[in-house]
Design goal:
single chain; alpha/beta; Udp-n-acetylmuramoylalanyl-d-glutamate--2,6- Diaminopimelate Ligase, Chain: A, domain 1; Alpha-Beta Plaits; Arc Repressor Mutant, subunit A; 3 domains; 11 strands; 51% helix; elongated
Length: 385
């Protein structure tokens, strides 16, 4: 719900005769602050989402302009406004092409505009929107933590969201996110918000409980999936060292059900990190949907141990592969030939192993009921390995 390039255009198109030249895909970039700059020195201290404004005084040549936008892109600026009519009249086509290619909004205002008034105007709007965002985030967290206490959040959110409509939670995370210091995490938050190029006013982005949270209201799942794909693509291009994982919760109706989508997104994000996947949709997780929603993780460990401990002990003692053999046997629904092919083992060896496995387990493994506990045990193992 931040103050965005789109908000700025709506405010400034007439008041400041602002024109949008390039970087259309950055239309929804949010703005953290506004800086007037005539050289590139300060850019290396950008956190992300800064809007740069310049008269062009310090950029006399085309290559100076190209260096400027490259640095703005590298340090995750939200856009560039050029004050034309004194030090620069015509914007180089190469500059426009670069901004389009990198989704960096490029805008102009005429020389007659008083930049100090414009910057003050935008800065006040950013400040006021930040205060509003803090109130919105507090109410959304209340909806997640205390869904039954609707007095704590419903009225507050009514003026910003369709509280009776659909909600869906996405969690964005990466290795070591919760161990970052506040400043480092804030910078990363700003940058990820720029990657979410199509985020609109019916969504909110914030850090909570070791993840970045995106809550979308009354938007299609197709839109959200495109949003995620775009965020990952931009993240790889602009910050290749970041391995971003995304967990997508189920869509729910009414703000009172937000906590359900959040918990499911949390499970999906955990699975994405564990299995090194970029995106995991909770609704596509099959049996894992049940296992990840079990609050008592101890009982899951107990089920795994009860089923597999005896075979693991046998493998350790005799350097055998009975656990892997059982997993393959269950995977192929008892087909000895398929197990032999997967494990590159003679079928007679597989038959011998399965016979011993049955004895160790005290289970013939013939019926679905007999196999099910062991199948679940392997699912549990995959949750944490």
């Amino acid at each position: 719900m931040s103050f965005t390039i789109e908000d700025m255009i709506l405010t400034a198109e007439n008041r400041y005769e602002m024109k949008f030249l390039a970087g259309q895909n950055g239309w929804a970039n949010s703005i953290s602050w506004v800086h007037l700059l005539e050289d590139t020195t300060i850019i290396q201290n950008f956190w992300g989402k800064e809007l740069a404004v310049t008269t062009g005084l310090g950029f006399p040549q085309k290559e100076d302009w190209m260096n400027l936008v490259r640095l703005l892109n590298r340090y995750h600026a939200s856009g560039l406004i050029i004050n034309v009519g004194q030090y620069i009249y015509d914007i180089p086509e190469e500059l426009i092409a670069y901004c389009n290619e990198n989704d960096l909004p490029l805008l102009t205002v005429p020389w007659e505009v008083h930049l100090s008034d414009m910057i003050k105007d935008f800065s006040i709007r950013v400040f006021l929107q930040d205060n509003t965002d803090e109130q919105i985030v507090a109410a959304l967290i209340a909806a997640i933590e205390t869904p039954d206490n609707q007095k704590a959040y419903r009225k507050e959110l009514l003026q910003y969201f369709d509280v009776d409509g659909s909600f869906q939670v996405l969690l964005l995370t990466c290795e070591g996110l919760d161990s970052m210091d506040t400043v480092e995490r804030k910078k990363l938050s700003y940058r990820i918000q720029l990657y979410l190029e199509d985020i609109t006013h019916n969504a909110s982005f914030f850090y909570y409980n070791s993840d970045f949270v995106l809550i979308a209201n009354a938007v299609s799942e197709e839109y959200l999936y495109r949003l995620v794909a775009g965020a990952i693509k931009r993240g790889k291009r602009r910050m290749p060292e970041l391995e971003l994982c995304v967990g997508i919760g189920s869509k729910c109706m009414d703000i009172s059900q937000l906590s359900i989508s959040y918990q499911r997104a949390k499970a999906a994000a955990h699975m994405a990190l564990t299995h090194k996947k970029q995106v995991v949709k909770f609704d596509d997780c099959g049996l894992f949907r049940l296992l990840y929603m079990v609050e008592d993780k101890g009982i899951l460990r107990e089920m795994e141990t009860e089923c597999l401990a005896a075979l693991e002990e046998h493998d350790r003692r005799y350097n055998a592969d009975y656990v892997d053999t059982l997993q393959s046997y269950l995977k192929h629904d008892g087909s000895i030939q398929a197990v032999a092919a997967e494990l590159f083992t003679h079928r007679n060896t597989v038959l011998y192993r399965i016979g011993n496995i049955r004895k160790i387990l005290g289970n013939e493994l013939k019926t679905p009921e007999e196999r099910l506990p062991y199948q679940i045990a392997f699912y549990i193992r995959r949750m944490h390995k």
